[in-house]
Amino acid sequence: MEGMSRIAPGTVRPLRLLSLDGGGVRGLSTIIILRHIMKNVSRGLGKPVEPRDFFDMIGGTSTGGLIAIMIGRLGLTLDQCQTAYLKLSKRIFNPSRGKLNAIGRAKDFLLADGKFDYKELEDAIKEVIVQDGNLMMDELLQDPESPCKVFVCALRTGNSETAILRTYENDEPELLYDDCKIWEACRATSAATTFFDPIKIGPFEQEFADGGVIYNNPVELVHREASVTWPGRMEDAMLISIGTGSAPGAAFEGNIKRIVEAMKEIVTQTERTADNFLRSHEIMANRDLYFRFNVYHGLSDVGLEEWKEKAKMADCTQTYLMNGETRRKVRYGKRVIKSLQMVCFIGTTDQSLLHLRKVLIIGAAQEYSQSLDYEYRLHRYDDIDEPARQTFEWIYNDLDAGFSSWLQNDEKIFWINGKAGSGKSTMLKFISDDPRTTDLLKLNRSSHTIVLAKFFFHDRGSALEKTFTGLLRALLLQILERWPKAALSVARSNVKSFRTHISLAEGIKTWSEADLRQALDLVKSHVEPGAFMCFFIDGLDEFDGEDWVIADFFLKLIVPPMDFKGIGTNWKVKLCLSSRPHNSFRDLFQGFPSLSIHEKSKGDILQYVSSRVRESARIERPALDSDDATIGNLIILIVERAHGVFLWVRLVVNDLLQSLADGDSISELRARLNMFSGDLESVYKRMLQKVRPRYLKETALLLHLVEYARRPLSLVGLFEAAATRLDTSSPSFVSDTDREVSVDLITEGSTAITDEALSRRIRSRCGGLLEIQHTTVSGKEHVTVQFLHQTVKELLARPDAWQEIFGVAPLPGSVVANLKLHSATLKLLNTHEKLVSNIDDCVYYVTVVEQLTMTVAIDLLDVMDQRMSTLSAGAKDFMQGHWSREYWKQKSGEPPEEWLDNFLAFAIAVGLSSYVIAKIRLRPGYVSRKKGRPLLHYAVTRTDYPVDAKLVTALLECGADPNKNYQEETAWQLFMSNVRDFQTRANISRIAGPFQPISEAMAAMLKHGAQVNTKVNNNYTGYWTRPVQIFLKNPEVIGEYFSLNDVKSAVHTLVSYGALIDIKDETNRTALEDAAWYDQLHDELLDRPAPKPPRPPRSPLRDLATSIWRHKINRS
């Protein structure tokens, strides 16, 4: 780490810069904030690190300058710096009279040139310098060999110009570089004219005072100094600015008026500097390369000299650090640092660093790849059978097939289509693995790096196996594994887009579809000229969405994006896609090379059938001539009837060979063959006819449970669900008949049943329509049950299938299946193994039941909470508090905030709104009595769901206060800060009219008294603004989230509740100025007088009191 913090020759690591404001004793707040930042940075980098070893430049003014010298020039740790600073403050800012004796203190000031003794300041500084014995008292400030450059700001009293005292040299004119001592620099930067006498330095006795008079916030100087010191390296530089409180301190209350006015002006100028810097470096802020930390509330009562108020300063600063926006900045900063770490040593020419560069590239790519990987990603690929011997060879040799020529030419898409069961997946696995594919791709691209990636959609698999999210994670993962430079290229260009998921140390294991699309776009935009992509994607018809949506995605994927000059980038990709021949795919892929596999596989089928039948005849019936013409005729008949469907062939041949082994003659085999038509349904029906009639009821139940399972069921889980009896405590909509549908398998007192016993039961009950699959994930074997083929699942989905095709009695409804699955999942829950996925399954099944029955499953969810509470109480390493804290820890990888969570809070977060509404209406007083984080705060910050207006309204009606402050933010402020994110989630969730619930929730909160003109953190700029301006800032960004009608509707709603359009936000702009981007809306606001805000609704308690009072009056 230490080596990576230094700027070695030939490297171009992004710079890390630190700016520290002045602020008297309130510099303690600076140290506390900096300790918090460095603690998070150290955790992210995996090793303790101090500012001197991390930052390339530290600049400070006044007490910020003192801290800069202590941690940068003297090399103190932050613990040592804090101790020294407290001692120094006590010694310096210690007036002879008490705080309450204002008259006496004013007298002292009038009798002295400065309020405090400058000699005390000098002596205190000198003691700090020599305390560890490594430096002399008169040590010079200069330190040219240090990798951490430090400067402090002072004021030339002769001409009132800024003076920079440096530990280093650059191209700027030298100022006392060979003369200024460390203690003199400290005195100069902290010699506030209202506190201390100026100091004279150097042979010409030049006089200096506190630089805070001009640059109390030195952020502009830090940026300028770095630009001069490292020309051309500011594009990716990260700058952190730390303040000491926005409000002016009550310096020596009651003292001389000019001191108070001077301090107010300094603090006002400090924030004005921050505002101007943000506006002039907006790109830097938008890329999350500039962060401003400043305690906005609580320090106004702390005078700049009141060292005894250290407890209050610590309290205010720690409260600020708990603020949601502050935590967001720290997390983003930490991830940005991690991302910037990736681009260390790119382009180095120093041979000694080449190995380190390689390690960094590989390590960064591996870490990023881990965050993209997911369980069962290769499940479908591993499940696909290898092709029969000597089959599919024609794909490379048949000129009419066109595949070999496509690999060599510039055509972008090759579409393999075929009937269900024709072998498309087997074909795609075969050609994506065969080295001839890569060889042919390289023929005309010898100078390119070929990057192959594959994905197999799987409708019967987990959610990620059939969605865009799973597809994009798999593609990005393989791109980065095979082309590690991609991660570095993207990180260098746009750290913000890679920051969120770059570090597993952060516990980031989940990705949104929007994040993944952006990441892929960045890869496309920054691909190197020598890279060539070829993707193999199977099963487009098994995508969990419309055919045209997935097809359109791939049609856009092949188009190179344009750079800012309108020139296409180096993105080169070929796509080999496979699907059934749906009309939508035929239309969209028209004009691209394609082949219909079922029309080309007759020779393969003949090879497969001939090999298996003749081999079996030779083994099972040695007396029978395997070359007999009758066998040959049977083989031809099978091939002709198959119509290119390999699955039909495999199942029919298995059946016929079993009959052959049982002693059937060839003529009997022909008769048996005639029982099968050329479709798979007839085969499935024939397979079920082998099941003994007494098993058919169980057969139907097992198939039904697999059909409705959220993801592949474990073998034990399937039979646990089948054995579940829905007793009298089950919901009333479950009939008595359905309660009895179960399998008498697992009973109390029985010994554990083995997987082999359960597997035998599957084979005997399901006739081969269900298959047992063994997979290994993270070194552990998993046994799951799935349908033989996708066509079995599709067949069972037909309403008439059970009676007409299978000839079994109708099954119990899907409600019962979901209830059984919920009950079994809950029963098999344990505290750690697959806790998150099992809880998610339980929630899913309950949600389905609620949707099907139009009722709220209160009892089911209460039981789930009780079950998990019991489990967590007995778990040794479970997190303290409600069990949901352990759920969130396992889901995100890091401990959640301590908010005093409960089951209602969990239910809100996972989308169980109906349950929450029902529960709070039964006990409305609970909403206002909940300790810790209010429920309304949870409702407006759900990360995986759009805002639910009905839930927000119900909470408000039951007593939730939109203006209640928790950790420095109200629910209303959080709602407005997240309003763009709500819109994004709504679009991803495919909600029709996604702005409507946002509008309804906003109106409900305003109706219940939300402070319409409060300050709101803008998550996209890092600065506070007004609610109405959230919808008006940066129209090019807003356009990605809202339509013009959405913006107008929101603005008019806010104005109707009293939003002021002529008050300024932190960027010094008004809503009316922001509305200038929208001509019509701007004119409407000008013409519309701002109405008086409506009265907030009366509280229920007040209404009750009024009713009682009126009742007494009437009785009297």
Outline the structure in words.
- It contains 55 helices and 20 strands.
- It starts with 15 loop residues before the first strand and ends with a helix.
- Helix 14 packs across helix 21 (485-493) and helix 43 packs parallel to helix 46 (949-957).
- A hairpin with a 6-residue loop joins strand 19 and strand 20 (1024-1025).
- It is elongated, with a radius of gyration of 36 Å.
- With 1116 residues, it is α/β, with parallel strands linked by helices.
- The longest helix is centred in the N-terminal third of the chain and has 24 residues, at 257-280.
- Among the domains are: 19-91 and 114-343, Cytosolic phospholipase A2 catalytic domain; 378-597, Rossmann fold (3-Layer(aba) Sandwich); 601-676, no CATH class; 1026-1086, no CATH class.
The number of distinct helices, counting runs of at least 4 residues, comes to 55
Which structural class should the secondary elements be placed in?
Answer: alpha/beta
User: Helical percent range?
Assistant: 40-55%
* Shape designation: elongated
The residue-averaged pLDDT reads: 77
CATH superfamily descriptor of the domain at 19-91 and 114-343: Cytosolic phospholipase A2 catalytic domain
Rg over CA atoms, rounded to whole Å, is 36 Å
Q: Please give the CATH architecture of the domain at 19-91 and 114-343.
A: 3-Layer(aba) Sandwich
CATH class of the domain at 19-91 and 114-343: Alpha Beta
Fold-level CATH name of the domain at 19-91 and 114-343: Cytosolic phospholipase A2 catalytic domain
Uncertain stretches: 1-11, 96-114, 247-261, 298-305, 334-362, 491-509, 732-741, 746-751, 987-992, 1090-1096, 1098-1102
